[in-house]
Amino acid sequence: MLDLKQRIGDYLLGPKVIHRVPGRLRVSVPAIRRVPSQFNGMANRLMDKIRLPNGIRTVDLNFISGNVLIHYHVNRTDEAGVMGWLDDLYVFLMGLEKRVAKLPESERQKAASQVVCYLENAGSGCIDLEKKEAIVEAIWHQKIAPIGM
Length: 149
Description:
This protein is of the alpha+beta class. The protein contains 5 helices and 4 strands, in the order αββαββααα. It has a 4-stranded antiparallel β-sheet with strand order 1-2-4-3, with helices on one face. A hairpin with a 4-residue loop joins β3 (56-62) and β4 (67-72). Mean pLDDT is 77; it is low at 143-149.
């Protein structure tokens, strides 16, 4: 089970820019260091499902350092736009994690597996973070509610 201090720290220490050059941002996201190594590939596949906003070219996760490297087109977006999208992604993923964490311990693994199944069955680039709250609700009610809520 995740430590409450760690959860609060991850939330308060959300994405922070640690290095910038035009067209590239390196961002610290402490929460991704908690992703178990067996789920790293799944997290990268999830990134393929997330719709990148106009201007963001690539997003690379580093689970060891807890950093995210983002390449973007400087003539299509700026640092504020990139960070706004990354904040939306963070809120989306933390919302899913929060829902799963509320379940009894015995149901968490199954719930996490069902969330992953839902996300993996989504088409490439179809998860629009502008609708993040609705997506979390849809995932929850279609996939999670039947197992115990």
